[in-house]
Write a structure and sequence with these properties.
The protein is globular, with a radius of gyration of 16 Å. It has a single domain (42-186), classed as Alpha-Beta Complex (tt1808, chain A). The strands form four sheets. Strands 3-6-8-9-10-11 form a six-stranded mixed sheet, with helices on both faces. The chain has a three-stranded mixed sheet with strand order 5-4-7, with helices on one face. The chain has a two-stranded antiparallel ribbon with strand order 1-2. The chain has helices spanning 15-19, 44-63, 124-137, 183-186, and strands at residues 27-32, 35-40, 67-71, 75-78, 83-85, 89-93, 107-108, 113-117, 141-146, 151-156, 162-164, 169-172, 176-182. The N and C termini lie far apart (37 Å). It has four helices and 13 strands. By secondary structure, the chain is an alpha+beta fold.
Length: 189
Amino acid sequence: MSAQPRRAADTCLTVEEFLRMPEEDSFRLELVRGLVVREPAPGRRHGMLSVVLASLLHQYASARNLGDVLVDTGFVLSRTEHTVRVPDLSFISAARPVIESGPDSLLEGPPDLAVEVLSPSNRAGEMRVKVADYLAAGCALVWVVDPRRRLVTVHRARRHATSLLAADVLTGDPVLPGFQVPLSQLFGY
């Protein structure tokens, strides 16, 4: 049984209607099968971990001209299923053409890497659905980072998920070849 998203309203929207919605200061908005989902703004621990990981990814990718690391960027995962997701961090390979919905707007298709940093408001069922959406849209790699438990669950297309603990090393293969960071360093903020 799949988890139901926390909905703003029972009215289903298309991606185009979602794009015309006004921004909300204290919420992150996503569109999940036509339903608007509001998530509260993340807290300090979430923000600190996001900055550390974004910095590590950006330094690695930019030094090798591998592509772009993005923060809080919306991706249209499906226009037929009306799904827009906003990972905390993402990476798009330089080898892949980027298609935008409009100037300074959402990107069409999935990122190559999506990173979700768990917040206290996240539910396990909702996160499973989110990861499944990324993978079904063609995302090659998804990291779910749990700052409270100090672990990272790695999801790859057509593979079982792997959980990494404090003594383990997080790698970016195959999306970011050679990228690695010990979790003790990642969670040492």
